[in-house]
Each structure stands twice: as C-alpha cells, then as structure tokens.
Design goal:
Blueprint: H1 16-34, E1 38-45, H2 55-58, H3 60-74, H4 78-100, H5 110-121, E2 135-140, H6 143-153, E3 164-168, E4 180-186, H7 193-206, E5 212-216, H8 230-240, E6 244-251, E7 255-260, E8 265-270, E9 278-284, H9 290-300, H10 312-324
Parallel strand pairs: 1-5, 1-6, 2-3, 2-4, 4-5
Antiparallel strand pairs: 6-7, 7-8, 8-9
Amino acid sequence: MSSDLSTAPTELPDSLEDAAEIAANACADFAEQAGALGRCRVDFDTSAGDETFTLLKQSTEFMQNLVSFVSYRMVPGLMEQKQSEIMKVAQARAELQALLNAGDDVQIDEEKKNELTQILENNGRDPNYKWEGPVVRIYFPDEGNAALARRDWLGDDPKVPPCVEFSACGGVRYQDIKKDAVVFFFCPKASESDSVESLLQTTETEAEDLKLTVFVNPNLVDMGVTGFGMAGRMLRERLLDGLTNVYYLRTLQWGALTRVWPQAFSVWQEDADAEGGYKLIWTGGQLPSNPEVEDIYDIQNGDKKERKSGGPLDQFGDFVQGMMRL
C-alpha cells in the first residue's frame, strides 16, 4: 500500500512505549519496502509548546525505546540473545527460590546463592559479554550528549541492547562503521547539517550491510544558520525532501497530530465524550503546517470558515512554518 494512496486515519498511541513500538515497526516495514540504504524520519514532540526541556531531553525515553524495538526487529541474532537472557533469569530465579526454601536443616551454598543473585541483577546478561554482530549507531548533536548516553544508557541498568553504539555529529570520527546496519541521527541541528551530510554519505559508502537511516526530530533548517533562501532550499532538496515521514506525533494544547506510515496524517481533538478521550477531526496525505492545524481546529469548532486560498502573507507564513518544522 502506497503512502500517497492511503487515506486510513492514524490512531493515537496508548503510551510512550506504545508510540515507540509503533514507530519502530513503521521504520522496519519501510526498510523492507525501500530496500538497502532507505532513509526516513520520525518526529516525536509531546511538549505541547512547553519549552522547559530541550527536545532532545524531552524525547530521550522515547528514543531509548525506539532504538530498542528497532534493534530487536532488524538486527539478526539479537532477539535470540534476549530470549536466552530471559531463560537464564527464569532459571536463576527458580534455583534461588529452591535454595532459600530448602529448609533450616540444610546449609545454604553461599557461593551458589551469590552467583544466582548476580545473574538476576544483570538480567541474565554476562557483564563481560561483548556483542560482535551488526551495529545500530546513534549520532548525537555533540560529543557531550554522546558521552552522557554511553554512561546513562549502558550502565548497570542498560536502556538499549548491546548492539547499540554512540557517536557525535561533530568532532573526529574514530569508530569503525563497516558493521553499521541501522543509523539514527538524534535531534540533529542546523549547525551540524554539513557533518550530517558527510557522515551519511560516508556511512552509505563504507557500511557493508546498511539497511536504514532514521532521522529523529531533525531541525536542520534554521533562519539564523542556513536561512530560508538558496542554502536552505538546497539542503532541503539534498537531504530532507527524500525522507519518508514514517512516524509523527505532536501533542497540541487541545489534541494531537499523528501519522504512521503508510497511513494518513490525522488530527485528533480532546473530547471527554469520545471513546479514548479523543475524536478524529481531519485526515490528509500531507503534513499540515502549524497555521493549517489551527485552521482545522477552528473550522471543526465553528470559529472560522474554511480558507480556500490564502493571500501572499498567509502563504509566506505557511512557508516559514513549514521550513521551521524541518
């Protein structure tokens, strides 16, 4: 089914984890259809205009889940390893329970007890184990964020599978990228656009089995950096226009805008009387601009007549809003 032909509305997710799993499946499905070197984008913004946290920080938990779901679906051998770890945990839990229930007259083997406890604490993963298979690489905007992720995402309680490696858009490249199977660019900014393009071209040339590149919350066009003139247009043509938007979720003050490829973009409005608390008020094949989203709401609620064609100022406003989404 083609994304251009699909008119089926996109339902809202039940939770952040559900959103990440839906997005991951959309990425994997797209990769299967696009073939090698597919490129797509995922946009996830649940701030509803609250700028207390940066988009990168606000979407970190979603990103951890997205990367994990994509990895387990697309990296050969990874799911089998996870199932093996689950079996080790179940076996260790059963053996430890039997050991503790042996009775007061039976001396507990402390060494065995500690061994089983360690297995449980490590969730069945050997702390000395090193993944040797395909790599899922995440490029952060800078080395500082990449270093924090190495510490926080791969610590005692890992948030992502062992196949994941962390890099930065800027700085000196030192990792071997030949095994990269899936590459994520997480919240790349306009100031890193040259590095992003270079890294993408190098990866698509050197990686031996690259399946997919995913841009998550890209902000590669900025008035103060690339401008909206020739530089912004050329960047858009070279990099952004070819990205299929496989998942989109943005919360609004009164509802949400969402899309799962290959279904339609859908606008939902909060409604206490509707099933699930939201009602569908619009579907379309293209991502609407911010003014268009507000128009959809106003028209639905009788506050405004449908705009047939805007004047030059309205059209320029829509253009600016559209560029700021990239």
